[in-house]
Amino acid sequence: MIETAPKPPPRPNADSKEFWAFAADGCLKLRRCRACDNWMYYPRILCSRCMSTDLDWVRASGKAELHAFTLVYRAPTEAFRGDVPYPLAIVELEEGPRMMSNIVDCPNEKIAIGMRLELVFEQRGEIAVPQFRPATDAIGVKS
Predict the structure, then answer these.
(1) At CB < 8 A and 24+ separation, what contacts does 76-83 make?
(2) Cα dist. 115→69, 129, 141 in Å?
(3) How far is it, in rounded angstroms, from Cα 89 to Cα 23?
(4) For residues 103 and 133, what is the distance between their CA atoms, to the nearest angstrom?
(5) Residue-wise pLDDT tens digits, 91-140
(6) 3 state DSSP class of 101
(7) I need a labelling partner for 112 at 20 to 30 A (CA). Which of 9, 68, 92, 104 fits?
(8) Residue 102: in which H helix or E strand, if any?
(9) Correct CATH for 61-143 of 2.40.50.840, 3.30.70.1450, 3.90.1150.10, 3.50.50.60
């Protein structure tokens, strides 16, 4: 096994610090506009649909569907070297937004577009990074 440095945690900013605080508690919360009911990911201060600033943090279900993925064969930093090849994915959350993440706990050859996924977190120091694995109630790809 290759020994590597710890993976770097995300760097929260003014717009995302609450998102990362919720994630550290094992909770995926998304911004939702009170004016037009638009769900958003990534965290921001304006609604991406109507530009309202009347936003709330709402707990997401943690359920998603795999929209797209690729396998990464070249580690972006030494910390990821032991993971290659690993899947980098775009998942569509049950609430509608899409987010970039990784698929874990699944052999790369079993990953398929449309598979149902569930949320898990990877600890990186004090930050917990949302990741997705095949849903325990799903076998293979949805029909």
Answers:
(1) 77/5, 77/8, 78/4, 78/5, 79/4, 79/5, 79/6, 79/7, 79/8, 80/4, 80/7, 81/2, 81/4, 82/1, 82/2, 82/3, 82/4
(2) 11, 21, 4
(3) 19
(4) 5
(5) 999 999 999 999 999 999 999 999 999 999 999 988 999 999 999 875 54
(6) strand
(7) 9
(8) strand 98-102
(9) 2.40.50.840
Q: Distance between CA atoms of 116 and 139, rounded to whole angstroms? A: 9
Q: Position 126: which residue type?
A: E
**Phi, psi dihedrals of residue 31, rounded to the nearest 5°:** -80, 135
Write out the residue limits of the CATH 2.40.50.840 domain(s) in the chain. Answer: 61-143
What CA–CA distance (Å, rounded) separates 70 from 42? 21
Percentage of residues of the chain with pLDDT beyond 70: 93
Q: Give the separation between CA 125 and CA 13, rounded to whole angstroms.
A: 17
The pLDDT of residue 137 is 75
Query: What is the residue-averaged pLDDT of the chain?
Result: 93
β-bridge mates for residue 103, sequence order: 132
- What is the predicted pLDDT for the residue at 33? 98
pTM to 2 decimal places: 0.89
